[in-house]
Amino acid sequence: MARTALVLGAGMVGVSVALHLRRRGWDVVLVDRQGPGEGASFGNGGLIQREAVYPHPFPRALAELLRIARNRAVDVAYHPLALTRLAAPLLRYWWHSAPKRYARAVLGQSSLVATCLDEHMAVAREAGATDLLRPIGWLQVYGTAAGLERAMSKAAAAQREFGVNSVVLDGAALAQAEPHLLAEKLGAIHWTDPYAVSDPHALTLAYARLFTREGGVIATGDARSMRRSTSGWRLATTDGPIEAAQAVVALGAASTEVTRQFGYAPPLFGKRGYHMHYDLRGNAVLNRPLVDADTGFALVPMRRGIRLTTGVEFARTNAPPSPVQLERAEPVARALLPLDRRLDAAPWMGVRPALPDMLPVIGRAPTEDCLWCAFGHAHQGLTLGPSTGRLLAEMMSGETGFLDPAPYRPDRF
User: Fold this and answer.
1) CATH second-level architecture of 1-57+97-130+197-265+356-413?
2) Average pLDDT by consecutive 10-residue portion of the chain (413 residues)?
3) How far apart are CA 321 and CA 274, in angstroms?
4) pTM
């Protein structure tokens, strides 16, 4: 049973790990309580973000902290009762966002991000899903000169240091690119490298179908039921118990519910987000994804309609949805684009799994030789799924990794 594995979690990261293991001859069972891609991989901005070389740091400027503290923003909201439990990881997040430590996070994230387009396209070709990856990039839109100037400086640095491509659009060029915008904006950064995904759930399902076509098995079960066995690991599923020599935890924000049972509890915390789909009035169109940088929400053209996605909400683990950010963003979005009726019965909510140093954990758990980790990708789970899957599968198979795994080692916590 040396090359048998349970992969816990069927989001983009878990599906990618399972697929890459299977391609190396492993017998793999992919386990989740839901179907593939029905967690955080279902609801996101649908971007394969080659430009995302800079992780989202914790704000350190006093004016920015005071703005967030008022708890009235679109981009960040919090439940006051959640702050006690979140205080420790958020303080560490703030600490890691200091310039020298943040520079290490940039190096770690940029190495992974640099591979994302090639790794996605390689899997998408085999999965017959290249039509879902649109090479149109996305627009970061600004209404103030100061904001646009800062963005231009950052874009120039990303090009110079990491080979990220972008084009600066003035107000006239932006209006020509997106003629149905209702509000006049000063300009935008067009990040030209990223793929825009027209249906993130469909992409995850396509990768999962490729996994099963190649002999992988998908089972329904609760990862928290996993226990040590004489052969490695044992887990109950709806089709009966299954066993494997190795186990991979790729459960996103719920990952530590499993790893904690086996002595490993990194300071993982969740960033909740919401989305809603809309029709557009008349013959209006949105040609490419758009982020209103002044307010902090995204409008993304997808199969379902125009998806409005929100920023970050901090809440207790099982707190009921409170889509206040969506309610704040929608009037601004309607003033920007001719949105019509809502297409979803209720807002969708998901949780982005984050770690204080802004990098995922990819590798062997420090407390169990046969337990592996692939979680903590924060905003970039969709982007980094195939890259993570390949890197971890190489490590588990005793191969030399195509990237240096040191920045993501689980024992750093």
Assistant:
1) 3-Layer(bba) Sandwich (3.50)
2) 91 98 98 90 91 95 93 93 91 96 97 98 98 98 96 97 98 97 97 97 97 97 94 94 97 96 96 96 97 96 96 92 93 97 95 97 96 97 98 97 97 96
3) 9
4) 0.95
